[in-house]
Sequence to fold (256 residues):
Amino acid sequence: MSGTAQWWAAVVLDRAPSDAPAAFCADLGPDALLAGYRAGAFPMPAPDEYALWMNEARYEEQVAEGIIAAPPGAGEDAFGVAWWCPDPRPVIPVTGARLGSRLARRLRNSDLWTTTADKAFGEVVERCAAGRTPAWLTADLRAALEALHARGRAHSVEVWEEGELVGGAFGVRVGPVISLDSMFGIRPDAARVAVADLAQRLSEAGGLLLDVQWDSPHVRSLGAVPRPRAEYLALLRGGPSAGPPPGEERPASRLG
Fold:
């Protein structure tokens, strides 16, 4: 275990700020990345030097006072990666993903789309990164995610239309949760289908929740409900451990 991973193992985020980063840690190696997710946080790297400077200017005092965690001896570069642990935490129970009646009906009446899991992880991450502002899916983070995927700890779900990737989502698996980092769709509702498909596959693997990280009307429409951070962290620490989601190709019509 790396030194940063050992540091993360001792970090307790129950009393972290609800309106500021819970921690700053620039180490995005795969061990540290997984340890951060296990602690209940997710990373938002600064996309440029200005964002790094803004993090330092806004939060340096809280880090110095110990309100925001940081590894011992962390310098100004630590402010390049903010780790968040919102309270409340928006989550989608694996039995609670919503398609909406219109989309469910359309899926039932069509066999155009199929889904898989972990068949095109790198391409899903690349599509999620394309054109996003701020560009938080940095090269270092993407490399660490690829490493975790190779270890069987980061997963993707893909939506296909006649062999073309038209939607997807990806995240990191910790305990009974997949922390859902991002999603994309180049067809209407393809991202929504990806989330519903991943929820079903995670349920089959013994999982309980998709953590959608940031609350918004959009994630509420997908079935997300706010859960107190303390409950979410307790589940990570003491809940069952899910296995990897099954990956075989399936018709999306089954979700309707």
The mean pLDDT is 95. Residues 3-84 form one domain. The chain has two domains: 3-84, 89-255.
